[in-house]
Amino acid sequence: MPKIKMPRSSPSLDMTPMVDLAFLLVTFFMLTSKFRANEPVVVDPPSSTSSILLPENVMLITVDTAGRVFFDLTGKDVRRKMLEAVAAKYKVGLTEQQYQRFSVMGTFGMPVAQLPNYIDAAEKVRAQMDVHAPGIPIDSLHNELSDWILEGYGASERDLAGKGLEGKALKEKRIRYAIKADGMTNYTKVKKVIDIFREREIFQFNLITNLKGGPGDTPPAK
Known about the structure:
About 40% of the residues lie in helices and about 15% in strands. By secondary structure, it is α/β, with parallel strands linked by helices.
């Protein structure tokens, strides 16, 4: 009996599901990723062995080698509410567009009076302004940092109250405080920032450091 020869054909693999999956992953990362904001000042913090990560909601005070103080606060709505309170206190008029732009900006180191021009500037121009920024005033006669800390805290609390959080959920979402200073910064400048926190009855904050053995990692050390 003759053997039956089965027809031979090249195997095929349907790649359509794989392509769909790839596009779904790309779309997912595009929608969920957060771009890191440009930092107006680069500092090299001292090293430590701490590996504690910064919380999601943080108020960050940065002090560079020249002793200039920069301020940052997470949360778009919180930043807007904070700016509204500070602008009203210093009687600085801002437009709706300026409030919106400030709410998505990052770290800044300008006195309140110079904020309108700083906010309106294009990104490249703002970067040049950061190079020559005087920093946020912290002297006893003109202590704007103290007001930013106070109004930032108040704005954060009002935002949380509006979300109806209570108990453990409220505690976890409450704003945390951190100081990031260059290792070569004069300690008296850092101490002044710490003293301002204490004047506002804030006694718990983090000091950001470089993790030993891990260049580029900057977790805070208590």
